[in-house]
Every structure is written in structure tokens, then in C-alpha cells.
Write a structure and sequence with these properties.
The structure holds 2 protein chains of 2 kinds.
Chain A lengths: L1 E15 L5 H6 L7 E15 L3 E6 L5 H8 L7 E6 L3 E4 L12 H11 L4 H15 L14 H13 L5 E4 L8 H16 L3 E5 L3 H7 L2 E6 L2 E7 H20 L8 E8 L8 E3 L4 E9 L3 E2 L1 E9 L3 E7 L8 E2 L5 E7 L7 E11 L7 E2 L3 E6 L14 E3 L2 E3 L17
Parallel strand pairs in A: 3-7, 3-8, 5-6, 6-7, 11-20
Antiparallel strand pairs in A: 1-2, 1-4, 8-9, 10-12, 12-17, 13-16, 14-15, 14-18, 18-19, 18-20, 21-22
Helix pairs in contact in A: 3-4, 3-5, 4-5
Chain B lengths: L1 H14 L5 H22 L8 H23 L1 H4 L1 H4 L8 H9 L1 H17 L11 H25 L3 H14 L14 H6 L1 H14 L6 H25 L8
Helix pairs in contact in B: 1-6, 2-3, 2-7, 3-6, 3-7, 3-8, 3-9, 3-11, 6-8, 8-11, 8-12, 11-12
The chains are: A alpha+beta, B mainly alpha.
Amino acid sequence: MNSIEVADVSKRYRQYRDDEMLLKRLAMPWAVRQIQEITALDGLSFAVERGDTLGIIGRNGSGKTTLLRLLSGVSGPTSGRIRVVGRVAPLIGIGVGFNNELTGRENVFVNGRLLGLTPAQIEDRYESIVAFSELPDFMNVPVKFYSSGMFLRLAFAVAIHTDPDILIVDEILAVGDAGFQAKCDERLRQIRGSGTTIVLVTHNLNMVERMAERTILLDNGRALFDGETSEAIRHYMRLLRDRETDAAAPGVGMPSAAVDVSLLDPDGDPTEQLAEGDPIRVHVRATFAEEVTGVSIGFALDKAQLGVIYANGTDPTAYTATHGPSQPLDASIHLAQLPLKAGDYSLRLVLRATGRRRPLALTAPLHFHVRGRSTGMGVVDFRANFTLNGQPVPAREAGLAGADEINPFE
Amino acid sequence: MLPVLARQHFVGGYRAARLGLLWTAIQPLIRGAVLAFVFTQIVRIETDSPYPAFVLAGTATWAWISQSVTGGTTSIVATAGLAGRVYFPRLILPAMPAAASLPSFGITLVVVIGVAAGFGAPPTVRLLALPVALIAALLLVFSMAMCLSLLHVYFRDIGHLVQSGMLMVFYATPIIYPASMAGRFEPLLHANPFSGVVLLIRWSLLGSSEPLLVPVAWMAGWTLVLGAIGMTAFRRFDRICVDRL
């Protein structure tokens, strides 16, 4: 049985440049209104079977948030039909509806009602909510005296105890410290196993990969891909790369070389996804517009928000062959193993020639995704082993949201 | 749902204030006392019930009405954070301020009854009709707030317009003077939907003998028309009004 059916749904927003004023409208009905119509969703159709977990990914502005608002019933579609069977609990904007003046206990009841529970149901779950939030001593204290961490914990505890038929999860799972995080993961797995339909709307590809069998890739309000999660992630990576290639082309001036870069998996096939620890090979093929001598090649591995994590290049004096329009360059960069932890990375290349200050070519970032479940936090996996009093002790398991959020010092 | 939100609104708003509930009940009384002084000691107004009780009943009712209408108007926009993330019938929002301030209005009314008794107008059997009067008032305020709150989502100056409008309508309502003093403007006064509310409540509290039928008929008419418009509008805009928040 389907628990969500979305049939040819479109959503258009009108954006006004200024707030509309009734007096102005009445006084100057002829005044031109600056309206911009935005199509957030464009004929989207899909269905989700009861108990399934669906991931929804896409770039900013692809329509994810709009879809989420429609699914949770906050807003309605401009055209098309949405059918949602059962009670929906949106885990969106956690803590919404909390009142600072009310005590923790009172807020549990108000928020529970807002999320669709009856007072009796809240009463039943109250103990469990308090235990989950780890705040038993603070329930009679007004929420305004809570720290932000306490506040989030309580809000999350309520939200996750609503036992809905359909759970819609936004980017909110990175709440609290590592211990609390692990509890949230555990709870989400339970919910997932209990026949609840889950829709994950997130940028966190790791989470989607671990939780969802099926993922929809949204772009410009349409489903660019709908199917197996790993396939969707591959399409997403390709999409990111294509957009940046389009954007990067002008401005650099006429490149003197055209560079084609591909990432090869251990079997030598082009890929956008690698596993932690895989050897990787970057294949580069460059064609030149004019004759150049002493070509050197460099690359940088970037991680979003962090910048360059590793860069290297060839010695410009060590390779002195001449290349021209009819002598392309085939190069490969081999990394014996990829010590990167699971996450999203990108690779850039630069091509230079001796005697030229400007690079021959700069490539657009090639995005790729590393999957894996290694323990620890950070970018590089150092494969730590622990021995306590002679007993080897395993490292802490990574959470659902990915190991990045697990910091033993927090 | 409505009681939950109203309670949260109410408790949340006044717990921080020391006098709490009492404060909201006292405010209209202070205003009434000032008016009572002015219009018995400086300017004289003839009424068929003791003037202090007459004016107190009026100002108390007005304070509740104007709070509920202005609060109801901005209710949807004011809860944008909540309404934009969780769905619940939006109809609740414009009803919330009126419902939330009902308890303190009740306390004020008790004080008014006490004052009236002190001035020689003890409650009569008509007091039994007070709940009916209150329900009629609630319906009027709610139907008005429904229309205005939706308009406010689309036209942001409605908030200011309503505020200044209520200030003017105060003087067009028989609160500090009886409707009979308005002379040839009396029919106009009666057409004011709030006149019916004030007269009905005063009739039930003080047993005044002012004409009631015409203003109450007007009030009922306003309630029906605005209620019908509001319900229709909400059916259409219930889900999409949040897109403009």
C-alpha cells in the first residue's frame, strides 16, 4: 500500500518585491506590481510504499524544502494532487512551538499536541520522553533557563516520540553530543524497522546512503533521477560537476589546453563513488591548441568547507617533451590507497608549461563521494588501534549521520 | 488544539509579569475609573444606571474586544514560525487572542458587578443571559478576526489600519455615553457591530433599559456576513496563505 502519492504536483510562488499595502492598492490601483513567479516544483510524480525509506537529495533551490512543506501539509500544491495516508510528523525546525516561559513539562505537552498526539498519548510517553532527553531534573524549570543543547535535546525527544505513520526528517539529526547522537540513531533505526514510512530530505549523502534504499534527485523542481540510492548519488555528483563546468568556462580567458579528467575505480572504470581505502587513479587527457614544451600537472583534493586537504604536482623540469595540437597528453595520477573518510570531496587539476606564467588549463572540480563506515572523526582515516591495559578495545562506531559528528571530546 | 494554544499564549504572556492574570483584569478598570471621574465630576452624562458601573462595563468589554480584534488580525503573521512548519487548521489562529483573554475578561466582569452593586445596581436575573452575550461577542470577534487575519497576510498595512480603526470605532460605540445621546446619529451608532456587544453585556450586567433589538440585529447580521466570508476565504487560503509569510 502506498503511504505517499504525489501526482503531477507543481508549486509556483509569487514573489513580490515589496510587501503589498492595501492603502496603496486602493489609492493607486494602476501602480505596477513587481511580481516574480518562481516554479519550485514542476510536475513531480512519485509514490512511496508504506514502511519504505525514501531519500530526497538535490542542490540548494532544487525544490527539496518546498516538497517537504507540501508533504507535511504545511502548504498546498498549485496544481496536481498529493495523498498522504496516516499521521505525518515533520521533524522540521525542531523546537518550533516551544514557549520560553513555560516549563519543560508544559512544553512537552504543548509540543506533543502540536505534533498530533492526544493528551493521553503524551501522558503515556512522558516518562520515556524525559528519559530520552536526559533532563529529569529540569522538567519543572522554564525553558528559558535551558542551555541551547538542553533545549534541542528536549525538543528532539518529543519529536521522536510521536510514533507517526510517516516521519519527515530534515537536516536536524546532528543534535547534541556523541552519546545523544548515538541514541537518536538507534531510535531512528527502531522507527525505520517498525513500519513507519520515512522521508529523508538532506544534504548528508552518508545518511541517505545508509538509511534509504531509494532516492529521488531533484533539480529545478523535477525528479532528475528516481531509483537506487547509490545510483542517485552518482547522478548527483555528475550534476554538481556539470554545473560547475558550465560556470567555470568563461573568465579564465582562452585556455590553451582542453583537459578531460576522469576518476577510475580499482577495476579501471570511470566512477564518482569510491570506498574508503580504495586505490584511486585519476586519468587525464589533454589536447593543446598550440605547441608547448615542458608540461607539468598538479592537482588538489578539496573538501567542502575545509578547502584543500591535499595537493601535489609534477616537477616542471622533469618532463620536457613537446606537445601540440596533434600530440595529446595522456597522464595518470595514482594514489595507492585513499585514506579519506566517508564524505564528499572534489578534485581540481592545473596544467602548466615552462615559460608561461598563466596556466594552460584549470579544470572545474570533479566531485566524488567516498563511502564507508570507518570510525573516528576528521577527514583522513589514520586507522587508530586502542589497547587498554593490554586488552585491545575497538573504536566507537560511527553514527547514522556519519562519523564527522562524533567527537570524543564533546 | 485551540485550548492548548490559547493556554500557551495566555500563560506564556503573563507568567513573566508579576501581577499575572490580575494585571490584565485591572487595566480596563483603571481606564474605567478615570473615565468615571471625568464624566461624573467634570462633564456630566446622564445614564439610566450608575455612571461608574455604566462606563466600567463598557470599557471592560471594549478592552477585550479591541485586544481580540487587533490580536486576531496579526495572529497568522505573528505565528509565522509555527504555521510555516507544522500544519494545523489555521482557523485556530484568529480565534486565539479572544479565547486567551477570556479568563481575565471574566475577572474584570466580576469586579464590574461588584462596583455596580456598590453603586446601587445589584445583579438581576438578566445576569443569567451573560454567557449568551459572551458567546455572541466571541462569534462576532472571531468572524471579524478571520477576515482580517487573512487580509493581513496579503496586505501588511492592515495591522496598522485596524489599530487606528479600532481607536475611532471606540467613540462610535456607546461606551462613555448612551446611544440615545447621539441624536440623529443613533441609527449609525446601532449599525456599528460592537454596539450590540456592549449594549447586550451592559443590559445583562446592569439591567439598563437602552434599546437593544436593533443593535443586536445589526451585530448578528455582521457576524453572519463576516463569518460566511471568513469561512469561505479560509477554505481557499488555509494551506496556501503560509506561502506569503
